[in-house]
Amino acid sequence: MGSCSVVTSEMKRNLLYSMNVSKFRQLIKKIDDVHGGICKDIEDSYLSPEACNIWFNKEIDRKIPFQEKHVLQQGSILGNLEKFGVLNKCNEKVECCESYLEEKDDSSVSAVVEFGAGRGYLTQMLADCYGINKVYLVERKSYKLKADRSLRQKENLVLERMRIDIEDLDLNAVESLHGVPYVAVGKHLCGPATDLSLRCCLSRQDGESPVPRGLAIATCCHHLCQWKSYINKEYILSLGISKDEFHIMTSFTSWAVDDDHGSNVPGVDDIDLLVANAKEEEEGEVRDDLSSVEEVVKKMKPMERAVLGFKCKQIIDAGRMKWVKKHGLDSKLVKYIPASISPENTLLVAG
């Protein structure tokens, strides 16, 4: 994304503080109303699929860096794809997968495109545990200690690492992916990178296009989201939220994971509990004598700010989920990992 058109955090703050108090309160009410109507059914789906036991039990190449926190996250992302019917498990150790691949029907997944792949260990787990034999890693930065070496040692596995900005990637130009059913995954898709990845997979479809059978994207860094690249502007506008208000909402999302409340918020992933606690703190404290939004924000309790931040994150993700549905994949939002492991614990999964 060209830096000249990026709305910076400072610009977003200026938009917020230039509002009058009455407009600010109206926006908060709008966010509350919208959230109450659309975000009721984000269920917990913390999964440790049997197919990934070789990773959970550390029966993997000793050279692969093993961090339990990341393995739990990766395993749950893949488990949610399996639960959605996108991945078929390969129960024995990976040797079974070659014959299993030959028996697959045409609609089953044989390739993965990992967006924002970093070192590629989410895809490494997918190849180890589900017999995927075509791997495309999309990452603009260069990394050491990549999974590529280990992946290249697998027989019958084709690996392509594409060093490119997601915004510039055209999957139709990747000849080896033509007509191939694939799954798209992403665990480090900060802010607009999620929107760019969804657009890359689903916006242009014809007979020759690669075929997305499913996707799983762990959303994060909503404070970096941009109106320019957001995938479902139509939906946001239909809620009565303007472009400037959208940018203000993205700045609120940073409050959900602020350090100043992280340790004091019990069950930070339980929005209902947060709301109840925030209401208790708020009682008797609605004040109309504050003359600026900056003053109002300063008077807000950490709990209250956290609730608002989480609501905005979920509204932004709900728009993405609805866009994916509109483009032909069933989709839902789940909490794929407890907030104690990562407060960025929302997964958009589709198939």
UniProtKB/TrEMBL annotation:
Keywords associated with the record: Metal-binding, Methyltransferase, S-adenosyl-L-methionine, Transferase, tRNA processing, Zinc, Zinc-finger
Annotated InterPro entries: Methyltransferase_TRM13 (IPR007871), SAM-dependent_MTases_sf (IPR029063), Trm13 (IPR039044)
Catalysed transformations (reactions): adenosine(4) in tRNA(His) + S-adenosyl-L-methionine = 2'-O-methyladenosine(4) in tRNA(His) + S-adenosyl-L-homocysteine + H(+); cytidine(4) in tRNA(Pro) + S-adenosyl-L-methionine = 2'-O-methylcytidine(4) in tRNA(Pro) + S-adenosyl-L-homocysteine + H(+); cytidine(4) in tRNA(Gly)(GCC) + S-adenosyl-L-methionine = 2'-O-methylcytidine(4) in tRNA(Gly)(GCC) + S-adenosyl-L-homocysteine + H(+)
Pfam families linked to this entry: TRM13
Domain Methyltransferase TRM13: 73-350
Top-rank taxon: Eukaryota
EC number: 2.1.1.225
Range of residues in the leader sequence: none
Transmembrane intervals: none
Enzyme class: transferase
Chain's role: tRNA methylase which 2'-O-methylates cytidine(4) in tRNA(Pro) and tRNA(Gly)(GCC), and adenosine(4) in tRNA(His).
Protein name: tRNA:m(4)X modification enzyme TRM13
Native source organism of the sequence: Camelina sativa
Gene encoding the protein: LOC104707920
